[in-house]
Each structure stands twice: as C-alpha cells, then as structure tokens.
Automatic annotation (TrEMBL):
Keywords: Hydrolase, Protease, Serine protease. This is Peptidase S8. Residues 1-26, 58-89 are annotated as: Disordered. It comes from Streptomyces albospinus. Pfam families: Peptidase_S8 (PF00082). Residues 67-395 form the Peptidase S53 domain. The lineage of its organism: Bacteria, Bacillati, Actinomycetota, Actinomycetes, Kitasatosporales. Residues 72-82 have a biased composition (Polar residues).
C-alpha cells in the first residue's frame, strides 16, 4: 500500500530524486484500460491499472484503499481544502459508465468529501448531444471515467462535475462532446485520451478546442517519448506525468519524470509534427508546439486510489496521464474562472516560479535532450512543473 501523507507539508521550489523515488520508478505490472486505436482518427484512454494489487469491493472498518487519496494530493501539491464552489469541471470520455454516479459516491464517502450527486445538483451525466441517450457501455472507458471523476474530486471537492459521454472514441465524437461541455457552461474541460498525430489536427483544433476563457486539459500519453493529439493542440494545457514519493524534504514529497530513458512507457512528450507553437511557449528546440506544459502524478507505481465497479471489482490503483489531466483541470477550477478572452494554457508560463520544478528522470532518448529528459526549467515530460498551490493557474 502507498503510505498516507501528513495533512500538510511546506512547499519546495524544486524536487530531486531520492533513493525511494528512484525505487518507485521501477515498473509494476499493469494493463491499459482501453485498447490502442485501430483506425486513424480514433483515440484511446490514457489510463493504466495495477494488476499486482488485489481489488476490493469493500474495506474493513480500519482498512484504507491502496494508492494515494485526496489528502495525499492536497499535501503534495499544496492545495487548499476548500475552494472551487460553484465551478463546474467537465469530463469528456467515450462510451458509457453505468455506475459512474454510485461509484463516485463510494469514493467521496470513503474520504469524507461532500456529496456530489444528481439529487443535489453537483453531478450531471449527458450524452454528446446534451441528453440522456447514453452510448454503449464499455468496461475500459468506465474505468477511465471513474479515474477522471475521482481525480477532479480529489483536487476540487467543492466543484460540480459534468460527465459528457461521446458516442465513440472517434475524434469527431469526442470533439463534439468537448463543444457540448462548453455549451453547457463548463469553464474547465478534461480530456484523458489521445491518438496519433495527423495532418487534420490543425482543423480539429479550430473546430473543437478553440474556446477562449475555457481551461481545456489533455493527457500527454502513456507510451513514453512521442506526441499524441489532442495534447498537441495549441489551445489546450498538455499535462505530463510524474512519479510522486514522500521524503524528508521541506516539501515532504519528491517527483521525477514518469518513465525511463529506455522509452516506451511513461508520460508522452516531444515536438508536434503539425500544430503551431503558441505564442507563450518559448523553448527553442522545437519550432512547433511542444508537449507538455505542466504535470502531476501519473506513475501507477505511485498510483491513485480509484473506485470502479463496472466489470471491475471496486478499489483499484490506477495511473497514467489520464490521472493528471483531470487533476490539473480541478486545480484550474480551484484557481478561479479564467478571463473571458484568455487562453488559460498560457497562465503557467506567466507564473513558472509558482510550480514545483521537476529536474530528474526521462521518458526516452531524444535530441534535443530536454524534449525527453527533465532538467532545471522547462522540459518535455513535465513541462514547467507541478502545482505548488493554485497561483500558476490564474490570470
């Protein structure tokens, strides 16, 4: 079991590898929740499940779930325990999770979080057209949905959650769901999926992701060095992943890149083939869009407690950048409503000193090396760093 954290810890400006953190980077047995896309234009969820930890439908009176819970993440990222009231974070995924609301209730009850249900107006589930004609259920995407709603809850317990279920994992259906979420008023939209880049991506950018005043987060990928779309969109905050471990530093935690120099596993990163570089991105080794912008915990070896019962057996430990995207969306919501004409993806670039700079680890081999190897300042796998409070996610 991943150890519980103290209730608070002092922030630190940078994190460095410790022996414990290095050990945590060792690969653990996992399986992807969603199959890799079989056709161009289709996406896969970026969630992975630990297979070496026994799933449990219920816990004993003195037992706790394996994996990090909300108090751990609030401590690690110096987040307030209140805030976000009245904000709505939208989750966009493919297919249906019939058990989404009841599983969310179990997660929140376990950790003493406020109720978030249809009955009290906190939770809403719609199809991509805004109705209740839900798509076909799918066990993999249901696990992804459980991970997403639990991570929003962990970051922002007072936020409302809007789950928009796309008819399929095609970019067109998922993009339609993004537009639906914005139409329904969400100012924060998380997308925990990705697929191969192609020449149609700039057109999809304009059609689905160009929403001033809306913070849209996207997972960077789980296959190590390499770029996925829509993380490559110039209009989104691309979210990479770290390994997170408690230590004896002033912060109380240390982070390294999720992945290894061998590649093939870990957070995605790199230089886009097709998407233009946004004006606020200043790195010089990539003339196009560079992935990622920021990061948070994603390594299943230092993974998250998630409750999922649709063709699953309750408490699991999940990881992947599908964990970091909804978590960062929740942090944006804690920080407050974006300016109506702003590009919220630019905010961290104006407040880099308010992030924990991750300086160790790699997700592959590349040139220039910063695209796959952490170092002081900006790097591909973790972007500018991880949250140290909410200041980096404000105007």
């Amino acid at each position: 079991m991943i150890a519980a954290s103290p209730s608070s810890a002092a922030p630190a400006p940078a994190t460095h590898a410790s022996p414990a953190a290095s050990a945590a980077r060792a690969k653990v047995p996992t399986h992807r929740l969603c199959a890799r896309p079989a056709h161009p234009g289709y996406m896969s969820c970026n969630a992975v499940a630990r297979t070496d930890i026994k799933q449990q439908l219920s816990l004993g009176p003195d037992a706790a779930p394996s994996g990090y819970g909300p108090s751990d993440l609030q401590s690690a990222y110096n987040l307030p325990q209140s805030g976000g009231s009245g904000q709505t974070v939208a989750i966009v995924d493919a297919n249906d999770d019939p058990n989404a609301e009841q599983d969310l209730a179990t997660y929140r009850s376990q950790y003493g979080l406020p109720e978030c249900s249809t009955a009290n107006g906190c939770f809403q589930k719609v199809d991509q057209n805004g109705g209740t004609n839900y798509p076909a259920a799918d066990a993999g995407w249901a696990g992804e949905i459980s991970l997403d709603v639990d991570m929003v809850s962990a970051a922002c317990p007072s936020c409302h959650i809007l789950l928009v279920e796309a008819n399929s994992a095609s970019m067109d259906d998922l993009g339609t769901a993004v537009n639906r979420a914005v139409t329904m008023g969400a100012k924060f939209v998380s997308n925990s999926y990705g697929g191969s880049e192609d020449s149609t991506d700039p057109a999809s950018d304009e059609k689905y992701f160009n929403h001033p005043g809306v913070a849209i987060t996207v997972s960077s990928g789980d296959s190590g060095y390499g770029v996925e779309y829509p993380a490559a969109s110039q209009y989104v905050t691309a979210v990479g992943g770290t390994s997170l471990q408690q230590d004896s530093s002033a912060r109380g935690w240390t982070e390294t890149v999720w992945g290894s120099s061998a590649g093939g596993n870990g957070a995605g990163s790199g230089c886009s083939q097709y998407d233009s570089k946004p004006s606020w991105q200043q790195d010089t080794g990539c003339s196009n869009r560079t992935v990622a912008d920021v990061a948070s915990v994603a390594d299943p070896a230092t993974g998250l407690a998630v409750y999922d019962t649709y063709q699953a057996s309750g408490w699991n430990v999940y990881g992947g950048t599908s964990a970091s995207s909804p978590f960062i969306a929740g942090v944006y919501a804690l920080a407050g409503t974006p300016g109506s004409t702003d590009s919220p993806a630019s905010y961290p670039y104006s407040h880099a000193s308010s992030l924990n700079d991750v300086t160790s680890g790699a997700n592959g081999s590349c040139s220039p090396s910063y695209l796959c190897t952490a170092g002081t300042g900006y790097d591909g796998p973790t972007g500018l760093g991880t949250p140290n409070g909410t200041a980096a996610f404000t105007q």
